[in-house]
Amino acid sequence: MLKKRQRPKALNQFVCIFISHKIPYMKKDAIYPAAQYYDRYINLVPDVDLQTALDQSLETLHALDTPQLELRGNYAYAPGKWTLKNVFQHITDTERVFAYRAMMYARNDKQIPPSMDQDEYAANTLIDNRSLEDVIAELKAVRSATIAMFRSFPDEVLLKTGICWKYEMSVLAMGFTAMGHQIHHLNIIREKYL
Question: Which residue spans adopt a coiled-coil conformation according to this UniProt entry (predicted)?
Answer without folding.
Answer: none
